[in-house]
């Protein structure tokens, strides 16, 4: 965080008060330089460690045409999970060979779209999907690359991890009960399906590297078994995303490069141990690319003091633009962007404007005593799963998104209009 001469919050080299005035609030603001820096932290580490790799941006964290153009410029690959995300990637002219399709419940239409556009690979998740895919590739006589999504039995939590005895996840094929092997054996004979390798994703907002290391170890036990019994050697190992970021002072993530480094070292170690070639290593960070590169600007509207209890500062957004506090009890930090010179001495809670008690953005944040209607509140680290999980509850239009870079700002997603809110409504007479 930095200030400029006027004591306004400076973000991405720009005055946030000016931005709020120009584009209105609520407003999502992204520092594009920071997005690039986060992407480079991963890409450069893989390059230095001299392993073949792909860093696929998990676009569910924040998908828009402009964002995917930046991802493309940074040489990232792309993880999409729906026709909508794939469509956005195509609109951004994203190189199709670097797009990977995910999903635990892909429809025939989604698979068909992926095949038509010849995307890089499909991450196969279940037996029903295998039958859909087999029908399509046989009909089209078209080759497709797939990864097998497996559940390695590591359940990662925010700050630690536990090893689950039995898998209980809607995603992927279990390693422990032989379903992953059954899936492999079903796919291998199909000449149109190239099983490039394995995929696993152990969770999200993970700080400790131990869970990732354990996942690699688990995968290698399986890979060794499959090599011994079926002579199958994966070319690709996709270790998913989930690298944690800092939301509040309590969060202590590792530097992004460290996550990549630990993964590569463990893969090399395991490959050496089992005498297997080092595969191409793919990862899928979403939050780690965009999370701390985005902030949200709100206008302070009403303030309600309940003496001796709490002060509610209501802003002109809420769970419609950031559902994470209501959904996950996620914590954020904020500042009054036009009063950085004043000491934050007053404890308030930041409320949204939805008709819902749970619509709170922050409980107990320190702000200047003088906080008042018209101030601009900036909430940090809202770049991941903010806009992408936004909604129109109470018929609030979704906010605009602005990119800032090199002292310039650019509108990249327009503010939703009231007309667009009703454009799909039909009258009933
Ligand atoms: N790869 C796969 C297969 C995933 O399921 C996910 C996230 C990612 C990569 C990216 O994870 P990341 O690096 O962003 O942690 N809405 C939640 C997060 C759900 C993540 C779901 N999958 C949130 O707001 O925290």
From TrEMBL:
Protein name stated in the entry: Diaminopimelate decarboxylase
Note the PANTHER family from the entry.
DIAMINOPIMELATE DECARBOXYLASE, GROUP IV DECARBOXYLASE
Source organism phylogeny: Bacteria, Bacillati, Bacillota, Bacilli, Bacillales
User: What EC identifiers does the entry list?
Assistant: 4.1.1.20
According to its UniProt record, which cofactors does this protein need?
pyridoxal 5'-phosphate
Query: In what residue span(s) does the Orn/DAP/Arg decarboxylase 2 N-terminal domain sit?
Result: 34-291
In its keyword annotation, does this UniProt entry include Amino-acid biosynthesis? yes
Q: How does it assemble?
A: Homodimer.
**What's the stated role of this polypeptide?**
Specifically catalyzes the decarboxylation of meso-diaminopimelate (meso-DAP) to L-lysine.
Residue sites binding pyridoxal 5'-phosphate per the record: 242, 284-287, 385
- For binding substrate, which residues are annotated in this chain's numbering? 287, 324, 328, 356, 385
Class in the EC hierarchy, top level: lyase
Task: State the UniProt keywords alphabetically.
Answer: Amino-acid biosynthesis, Decarboxylase, Lyase, Lysine biosynthesis, Pyridoxal phosphate
Q: Which reaction does it catalyse?
A: meso-2,6-diaminopimelate + H(+) = L-lysine + CO2
Q: Could you tell me which residues carry N6-(pyridoxal phosphate)lysine?
A: 60
Q: For the Orn/DAP/Arg decarboxylase 2 C-terminal domain, which residue ranges apply?
A: 27-383
The annotated pathway is:
Amino-acid biosynthesis; L-lysine biosynthesis via DAP pathway; L-lysine from DL-2,6-diaminopimelate: step 1/1
* The family this protein is said to belong to: Belongs to the Orn/Lys/Arg decarboxylase class-II family. LysA subfamily.
